[in-house]
Write a structure and sequence with these properties.
Rossmann fold, six-stranded parallel β-sheet, two-stranded antiparallel sheet, 8 strands, 10 helices, 2 domains, alpha/beta, 16% strand, DNA polymerase, domain 1
């Protein structure tokens, strides 16, 4: 059994695309820009809010976006998104709460590591998983760089009094895969998230198409 499990949030535990798209489009509207379809926003998710904002403005990444324009978009998004994720805009994927309950009942230590801003990650996890003993819950902040930095995983391992190699990171993207590689820990990937499945399947890590398959792996 995998006893030390760290979960990604967006695309792994929760369907957050509707809320993210709403926040992005409100920010774009504030700048007089045209809204994006959810399918377009889906391809922008996974590398943090600034990358998301740069892509929403039409740039390939943060580095290619003009600093002032990106900063304005980022400020609008940070203002709007806390009001956009609640309710039906963000929900756990089916069977996720059951899986987490089973893992906790078997004594697994559980944590969340997201590239979302920390000030959004914590209340979201508390609201959607009030009975799950996640500790710690970590989002992007000055203290914890975005994945694929291994800093947060190393911190979690220290908090739990284990070597980082004993962790299993569960995620839905190549960014999660690179994070696990940088930290030197196990990795489990899920196919129901926001990344293209083909690159995930090419990784030499287990890839799961259903929550039940993932649960059986984590309990084995």
């Amino acid at each position: 059994m995998k006893r030390y499990i760290v979960f990604d949030l967006d695309g792994t535990l929760v369907e957050s695309l509707p809320g993210i798209a709403e926040g992005v489009n409100r920010a774009l509207a504030a700048m007089g820009r045209v809204a994006h379809a959810r399918s377009a926003v889906r391809r922008m998710i996974g590398q943090g809010a600034r990358h998301l904002c740069a892509c929403a403005l039409g740039y390939a990444d943060e580095a290619s976006a003009p600093a002032e324009e990106l900063q304005t978009m980022h400020e609008h998004f940070r203002r709007e998104y806390p009001h956009c994720w609640q309710g039906n805009y963000t929900t756990p994927f089916p069977e996720i709460r059951i899986m987490l309950s089973r893992l906790a009942a078997q004594g697994a230590r559980l944590a969340v590591l997201s590239n979302k801003p920390h000030e959004v990650t914590v209340p979201m996890v508390q609201a959607l998983f009030p009975t799950t003993p996640f500790s710690p819950v970590i989002g992007h902040s000055a203290e914890f760089p975005r994945k694929p930095s291994p800093v947060a995983l190393q911190y979690i391992a220290r908090q739990w009094g284990i070597d980082v190699s004993q962790l299993t990171l569960v995620g839905d993207s190549l960014h999660d895969a690179h994070t696990a590689a940088n930290a030197g820990c196990d990795l489990a990937l899920v196919a129901w998230g926001y990344a293209d499945v083909a690159p995930l399947a090419a990784m030499q890590s287990p890839l799961f198409g259903t929550v039940d398959e993932l649960l059986r792996y984590l309990l084995a």
